[in-house]
Amino acid sequence: MTLPTRPLGTSGLEITRVGFGAWAIGGGGWAFSWGPQDDGASLATMRHALELGINWIDTAAVYGLGHSEEVVGRLLRELSPTARPLVFTKCGLVWDAHDRMAEPRRVLKPESIRAECDASLRRLGVERIDLYQFHWPDETGTPVEDSWGEMVRLIEKGKVRAAGVSNFNVNLLERCEAIRHVDSLQPPFSLIRREAAAHEIPWCAEHRTGVICYSPMQSGLLTDGFTAARLNALSSDDWRRSAPEFQQPNLGRNLALRDALRPIAQRHGTKVSAVAVAWTLAWPGVTGAIVGARSPEQVDGWIRAATLELTKNDLEEIASAIARTGAGAGPTRPVAAGARAAH
């Protein structure tokens, strides 16, 4: 199958409007795991996503402490070069090899970036990373100019094709942009976490920087089947158990907003998850959405977002539901490029 694509800023990469997010396939037993995951199921799920037309996978070194990249590498080795998806990964979260459950440190020292890049290339089994991203801002005191300068050198050496950042604010984006164009930003963005629509996404639209948002279904909350009982059944090492949006009163508001999407999904003959993802793609400046899955059936639940165009009435209905439920924070309604977002 083929799906519509968009250019990722000025990077030269053409990506489908949804990409496969490989966080959960890292498996269990680390600080931000989604619980145990079978590698065979992960491979089958990624194959299914590619068969449906998705042309990029987003992973990170820290997912499963290297394991997600290794599983993606297994997938790449079984595909012919012409059938391979684009592979995006991230650096800057350094874990403790002696304590898997310790929270990784945010490190963007040039020597650390170099070592992480080489390790990711080995795990993925590729000669060049299509999009390499800083995962989080540095917490060691390293100036972002030094970090971004190292990213430029990785591009010059041919190890990286395009360079982006994740979880950066406008100030950090500006400082990077002064050295070398930022090809993409990866912000958290969903019907619940809408803050990036106020500043970062408009900045990217103005500077021709691509945006690939993460957690557009708010880590599973904005799906048909999520319930409070499902939360209680999550694995003991699933990070969502202690996440604020999964605790009351937020949980009740979030599930009420999810329920308000059901009539819209029914009108379009699709799932709530597809509507939630399509909402993020309706914003000017958003290039694509990273959507996770742990089974082929989950991919089937949201793949329609790649082609679903929400109507003006749909968007108004969703904005009203956000106001009524009080879920999340940030602008509530996509507006024409250059106009001010509605709060």
Question: How is this structure best summarized?
Answer:
The protein is an alpha/beta fold. The protein has a single domain, classed as NADP-dependent oxidoreductase domain (TIM Barrel), CATH 3.20.20. Helix 1 links the parallel strand 3 and strand 4.
Q: Mind explaining what this structure looks like?
A:
The chain is an alpha/beta fold and 343 residues long. The protein has one domain: TIM Barrel (Alpha-Beta Barrel), CATH 3.20.20.100. Helices cover 36% and strands 14% of the residues. It is built from twelve helices and twelve strands. The strands form three sheets. An eight-stranded parallel beta barrel has the order 3-4-5-8-9-10-11-12, surrounded by six helices. Strands 1-2 form a two-stranded antiparallel ribbon. A two-stranded antiparallel sheet has the order 6-7. Helix 5 (170-177) links the parallel strand 9 (160-166) and strand 10 (184-186). It is globular and about 50 Å long.
Instruction: Report the helical percentage.
Output: 25-40%
Structural class: alpha/beta
The strand order across the widest sheet is: 3-4-5-8-9-10-11-12
Beginning-to-end CA distance, first to last residue: 38 Å
CATH superfamily membership, which one?
NADP-dependent oxidoreductase domain
CATH fold name, please? TIM Barrel
Silhouette = globular
Task: Name the helix and strand elements from N-terminus to C-terminus, one letter apiece.
Answer: EEEHEHEEEHEHEHEHEHHHHEHH
Uncertain segments of ≥5 residues (pLDDT<50)? 337-343
Q: What share of the residues does DSSP label as strand, in percent?
A: 5-15%
Overall tally of structural domains: 1
Main beta sheet, described?
Answer: 8 strands, parallel, barrel
How many strand units? 12
Radius of gyration: 19 Å
Number of H/I helices: 12
The CATH architecture can be given as Alpha-Beta Barrel
**CATH class category label:** Alpha Beta
How much is the average pLDDT? 94
